[in-house]
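Onboarding guide, step 5: your first structure request.
Type a short instruction followed by the sequence, for example:

Predict the 3D structure of this protein.
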Amino acid sequence: MRGRFLFVLIFFLACHAKPLGAQDRFDSGPYKGFRIAHPESTIVELEQPFRVRVVRGVVRDPSGSPLPGTAFEIRDDSSGKVWGAVTDKHGHFTISAVSHGTFSFKATRDGFQSVIGKITVSARASRKSRIRLILPLGV
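The system replies with structure tokens like these:
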């Protein structure tokens, strides 16, 4: 009897569980396709776009410490395609093979406010240009 109960429980969980690593995403609106942080109460929008040759940079907390495990995503607003990376132990990220153009971005980490804005990828940008973000503590 106990074996049958465990089988039914495991079967139920397997059928209803999200795949490992799956994240909830916005279905519509200006954040469509981006991950949802839990809880996500505040999203800070940057007014000035970043201008870079390559999508790479660093994410830090307000004290200047690196924020490993931060999701950094860009979205091609015309196609809706989203690319992403997760920051390493030093808070660095890179998204390779991105064509020239303007993209929306979102940086998300649980316990912090998300940051959104625009990135222009251009061969005319400085070779030294990097995206530098500070995520405010969550509220």
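Each response can be followed by summary notes, for example: The domain at 23-134 is CATH 2.60.40.1120 (Immunoglobulin-like).
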